[in-house]
Amino acid sequence: MSIHIPDLLGEETEYLLYHECKTVPKDMLHLPGPDFVDRVVAPSDRNVQVMRSLQTLFDHGRLGGTGYVSILPVDQGIEHSAGASFAPNPIYFDPENIVKLAIEGGC
């Protein structure tokens, strides 16, 4: 038995399958992959222990080795996505910019 996704989506098929984000430019995204830590985080100045711990997180659980990690605070869920939080300031999708902002703020 095969499932035909557009049939399941009904009237929202076009919107859901062909959505194109106009808020965050594609070239600002770091796409997930098994090499995410090496490709995205390694060029930073983080020490070896931090890198090892981060890689352990990315290699654990059902998403292990995919480049995806899902950490949800107890009081939040998926509805509080990065897109909703950072869309007004897309440069803050990049964690390095969050650190720079914190330093500028005296943290």
Q: What structural class do helix, strand and pairing data support?
A: mainly alpha
Q: Helix amount, in percent?
A: 25-40%
Evaluate the radius of gyration. Answer: 17 Å
Distance between the termini: 56 Å
Number of structural units classed as domains: 1
Oligomer: single chain
Spell out the helices and strands N to C.
Answer: HHHHHH
* Strand coverage percent: under 5%
Give the tags.
107 residues, mainly alpha, 6 helices, 39% helix, flat
Describe the structure.
This protein has 107 residues and is mainly α. It has one domain. 39% of the residues lie in helices and 0% in strands. The chain has helices spanning 5-9, 13-17, 36-41, 48-58, 82-86, 95-104. The longest helix has 11 residues, at 48-58. The chain is flat, with a radius of gyration of 17 Å. The N and C termini lie far apart (56 Å).
Quick take:
The chain is mainly alpha-helical.
